[in-house]
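User: Fold both of these, please.

Assistant: Here is the first one.
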Amino acid sequence: MHMFPSAIASSLSSLASTCLPHRGFSFESFNTCSRRSFSSLSSPPLDVESSSQSDPAAKDKMGSLPTVPPFKVFIAGTSYAGMSTALNLLDLSKGESPRLAHSPYEHHADFKNIPLDITIADERDGFFHLIGSPLAFADSAYAAKSWVKFQDIPSLQRPNVRFVQGSVSKVDPATKTATVLDHETKQPQDFSYDFFIGATGLRRAFPVVPQSLTRKQFLLEAEEQIHAVRNAPDGVIVVGGGAVGIEMAAELKLVEPSTKVTLVHSRNQLLSSEGLSDLCKDKALELTKEAGVEVLLNTRVKETRKIEPTANGRARYEVEFTNGDKLIASEVVMAISHQTPSTDFVPAAAKDEEGYVLIHPNLVFSSDIPNAEDHIAVGDIAKWPGIKRCGTAMHHGHVAAINIHQLMLVKLTNKEHKPKFYELGFVEPMIGLAVGKKAVASSSEGTTWGEDVMHSYFRDDLGFTICWNHMKLGKADN
């Protein structure tokens, strides 16, 4: 039985594959509302003195601009939000429009090219497509596709981008220093920065997300889980009727149609914790059953006991429910886990009681800490309403890159530049959920479902290709 207590940071914008693009889709408009504004009351005060850039816009005696030293940018976490921030910012630094933009970006006439020195720190050695986690733990070929080492991502192979595998243990806003515990040496290493971007996401337990830190370890971890659920003569029980549990149960049944799969949920509706329409929740149930998964609602697990194995030594478990019913299974998969922001390194003054980073609408830290205006939080760790989704995380990265670029211009011009910040707006509850061969999608515009919805939102790889292409991860720098 796999019920591991350990967890790993994931910039998980909901594993529930939530809200990927479809035909006519716009990440800008669909994933989260945003607006452009001049420096407003909701934006933080700017302090150019805190930057290593000291009035580089001052012209020399010949009237030409001096060489601008690179801004040091430190990004903690490189899933959807962190990756999007890095790549959009790199575009802007070369005088281009950010890759997620839907309209041309207006650059400063004197600073179309701004040198950057980017350090990326992540516990993993690569980009893991978290949306695909349910399928990665059911299909070996997909598992191999879902994890790409950073050195194999063409868009990141640049001389001014450095990757450090390790855990960020501390951030000191006063000295603008980030400390990373190296994955191999276990020794701390300090990195100074001009701008800090926190994108470390949420921590969740296995098998909601993999616990491995390297691709090699992950493939072994996935293979062990795949073997366990395939060799299940007494069937598999998936506990938890949220988006993750639904997708896990449906993907397992799709890959192993002969295996009995039972989804157990304690409430009277699937997706009960989400502010979605009853129609969406009803269709999720309908599609789950249609996929061949048995569903038990209003059923809460009381105890799981390991019982006598089969004749060939296969483990067996007895699951007892609070209503007195019992089920036997070869595997019990816990698809429920308490999610916590991976923000231990963030000063307590910058977080709420749950650990989420307090932000202005432009993603800048809103708390009263030193140099708050040079610290940005994106993705799941940011305290902002709405279902945690990969689309929102990528959009956060786009907005963060623009706003960091605007802050750089303020520093470069000694405050003469008036920043034009993008700000987040209200995010309505919405979801795109893969259920076997079909999907259900729901937003304020209504609920749709079917095989065409599956293709529009996920294609045939739970959105891997869509996300890869959207962020242009395969595009090498010129």
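And the second sequence with its predicted structure:
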Amino acid sequence: MQYQNYLLDAINEVLSWDIPDEALADAVKSQAGLMARVNPEEIMELTSD
């Protein structure tokens, strides 16, 4: 499954964590990557603007 297919699940998961708001975006990207079994180095390539 593609990384993007996990974004909503990752958002729901990360919102339940007690982390600062400024860390949410990076946490969602990382969590979606873990769920999609993406190599951590590839996450930056997938999320670069």
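The chain has three helices and no strands.
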